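retry 2 of 3: previous attempt timed out while embedding adenosine monophosphate. Reduced batch size to 1 and resubmitted. Inputs unchanged:
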Amino acid sequence: MLNLVIFGAPGSGKGTQSEKLIEKYNLAHISTGDVLRGEIKKGSDLGKSAKQYIDKGQLVPDDVIIGMLAEELETKKDKAGVIFDGFPRTLAQGEALDKMLKEKGQEVSAVICLDVDDAELVKRLLQRGRTDDNLDTIKSRLEVYKNQTSPLMDYYQKAGKTAHIKGVGSVDEIFEKISQAVDKTK
Ligand code: AMP
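retry 2 succeeded.
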């Protein structure tokens, strides 16, 4: 099984590249952001509570996210693997993912880190125009990424699982570099 984590700041291109990866490698796609937006649309209790964090650019609490992820993972069994997009975002989530995969006799195969500088990220997010893509929320999400999410990169680096890809250039150029990194893990 190919279990890929696509890692990078908001706006680094995780969603776009995930779409291409799922097709090429026959993977299931789990985007915690997409699941949360779906819950908000449905008006569920989970959605209502998550919206308060999302609107402020803060992380939804680990226990909520980890429970949600475990449920999602159970529904994705008929593919060659999974791409985790926007998860894990904290060390606790990373450890929880390792545990969940270990119980299935699996592990994270590789962590694709998309490196993009802050000025470019802000520019892209403002162009994207999602409701949480306003300047205040963007600033807070970038801070959250630096303080809470990027420490997780050291965790994966120590495990020898990271591949750093420069996330600027055309979508296809970036995808080519990602594919090369993925092929090395197989
Ligand atoms: P995304 O679509 O990945 O940019 O996520 C949008 C928002 O959903 C984030 O700013 C967080 O508020 C929330 N979110 C998504 N994934 C997670 C996660 N793994 N942990 C905590 N919050 C998350």
